[in-house]
Amino acid sequence: MCMRFITACLLLFAGCWAAHTPASEVSSENGVKYADKEFLLKQKFFLDILRNIYQPLGLEEYLPYSSGWISDESKYNDFKVVYKFFDLFKRGFLPKGEIFTILNHWHLTQTRSLFYFLYNSKDWDTYHKNVVWARENVNEGMFIYAVQLSVIHRKDLHGIVLPVIYELNPYLFFTGDIIHDAMVNKLFDAEFGFFSDKKRNSIFGNYTSKFCDKCEEGRISYYTEDVGMNAYYYYYMLEYSSFLGGDEFGLYEDRRGELFFYMHQQLLARYSLERKGNFLNPVGELFWECPQLAEYHPMLRYWNGISVRSRETGSCMRWYNPSDRQNIRDYEMRIKEAIDRGYHVLSNGTKIDLRTSASVDSVGNIVQGNADSIDFEFFKSYGLLTRMAMSQTDYYKLTEGLWPGALMHYETSMRDPAYYQWIGKNLEFYWRYKSYLPPYTFDELNFNGVKIKSLVLDKLITYFDYFDADISNGFPFNTKQSPGKSVWDFSIYARQKRLNHKPFSYTMTVTSEFEGKGVVRMYLGPQFKRIEELQVLKKHYLELDQYFVDLVVGENVIKRNTKEFYYDVRDRTTYTELYKRVIRAIKGDEQFVLDLSEAHCGWPDRLLLPRGLPSGYNLTVFFIISPHNAPKVQQYSTYDSATSCGAGSGSKYGDSLPFGYPLDREIGVNSFITKNMFFKDVSIYHFVDDEMN
Questions:
Q1: Tell me, what's the pLDDT at 9?
Q2: How much is the pLDDT for 322?
C-alpha cells in the first residue's frame, strides 16, 4: 500500500545536518551491509537506556551521567537553542509519571526544547551522556518522543534500530485487560516471564469488540486496533513532526504538504475498504454545526493506572470551548478562499500561486499548520484546532486536569472511528484544490506504443494468525525478587490474532514499441460498471505497489510477487530478541545486518489486503505503466537507503509525478482510458484457520 510514508511512495523512494558525522563504518558483502563494533555498542546503548522506561535506570555504567547535563558550550552546534532548554527546564518540566501528549502546547514546547538539546549535541560522547541524564530527569513519554526523533534526524545515528513503539510503551496499544492479566500472573507466579516455553509467558489479547457486541465499529477493531498499523501512523507523525521545518531539516524537500494529504487519503481509502467488506456504512461527513461523533471506549490505561478518556454518544458534540466553533469556521473559510482565489498574498506582498500542480504542497502545509506553512500566522493550524475540538479539550490546558482521549495521541488516533471523520474533513481541502486543476489529457495519460495485453493474478486470500508482541517493557523488574536473573531473561508476550494474507503473484504481458524505463503503479479499489463512477470511487483506491520496469521492443512479461512490493515491511523483531541479536553480534557469534526490511516507515505487509469474505469480496485492481519522469534530485543520491528512510533528504522518490497519479484529479470521461492502463475485477477470499492448513 502506498504508505511507506510514501517514503517509499514513489518508488522506490540535503541531508539532515552536515555538522553530524556519518554513522560508524560498516562492512559490506554482496551488497549486504553489516554493523561494526562501534555501531553495535551504540545500538546496545539505546536498548539498555529504553528498557523498563518507567523504572529508575539500574545500570551502574550509566548512573554517573544521570546527575547533570553537559554544560560546556563548545560541546554543542547551536548553543543558543540549548541554553533555552537549560532555562526552560529550570522553570519546570512535566514531572515523571504524568500523562504526556505531544498534542498539548506546553508538552510540545518542552519536548521540542528537549529534542533540540539532544539534536545539537556535537558528538556521541556528549549526546549519549545527555540522553542518560534525560532518561532519569524528564517525563517518560516526553523522553521517548525526543530520543526517537533525535535518532531519526541525526546522521550519525542512521541505522540504529529502536524497539518498536508498541513494545516500548505497550500501554497505548494493548487493552487494560491484557496488562491486568499479565500483572496478576506475575504477582502470583514468580516464574512467569522466565519460562523457556514462550506460550507459558503469553497472555491472549482481545480487541474491544469482545466487550461491545452491539457496537458496529467493533466489527473492524481487528484493523483499527492493529498494533502495526497504529505504529505506522505514529512514526509518520513523529518523523515529520509539525514543529520541524526550514532548511535545517529539509522536510519540505520531501513534498511534505503533498505527502500529508496523500498519506491521509490512503489511510482513509484503506479504512473504507475494510468497512465496505464488513457491510458498514461509509464514513460519516463532519459538520461543525452539529458534529456527530461515534461513541468510543478505547479500554486503554496509562502507566499510572488512569484510563484513556472515553467518549459518550450524543446528538451533537459538546464544545469544550464555545468559541472554538467560530474559530474553526473562520480559518476554514480563509483556506477555502485562498484555494478558490488561486493564490495567497503574504504580508510582505509576495504572491503565492495555488493553481499549479506543485501547489498541493503549499496547501497541505497550510492545512496541517506545520513549520513550513507559507503563512502560519494567518492560517494557523486547522488540523490541530479541529482535532482538539473533537477531543473536547483545550490545546493550552495545563497538566493539572489534562485527561487525553484517543485523538490526542498519535499512537491511538486510528483506533477512534471519529478520527476518520477528521481525515475526511481535512481532505475536503485537498479535493477542492484538485478540482481546479484540469483533468489529465489523453497525452498526459498515454504511454505511446505501450499496451497492457493481459494480467494473470493468483487467488487472493486473507486469514488471521497469531502474533506475539513483547510487552515486558511495561512491567517493573525487581532484581531482588529475581536473584541471578537478568532483565533480558524476562519476557511477557501479548498474543493476538492479526489479519494476514497469503503471498500472491501476478504476470502481466505488455507489448511495447518503446525501449527504456517505465513506472508501474498498482491500485486496488471498488468495482464499477461505468467510467463515470470512478469520479467518486477514485477516493477509495489504494496504491499497493510502484516500481521501475525496463521495457524492450516487442512483448514484455512482467512477473512480481507481494514479497517484492516496495511499500511493505515484515513484522518487527521483538525487543528482547533484538537485544540478544546485538549481544551475539558484539561477541562475534553472528553479523548484524543493516537494512530496512523492518523499517519504521513501512506499511505492515500483513495488512496489504482488506479482509476478504468466504464468498469473495469483489474489488478491482488497476494498473498503469507511465514513462519515467525523473525527479529533480536523483533517488537515494543524498542518503543511504539501507540505513535511513530519507526524511529531509529530498531524494526519496524515483518519479516526479503527483502522488496518486492518475487518480488525483477529476476524471476526463472521454480521455481517461488508454492502452497503457488495465482494470481487472478480482475477489478476496477469507479463510478460517482450519481452511489454511
A1: 40
A2: 82
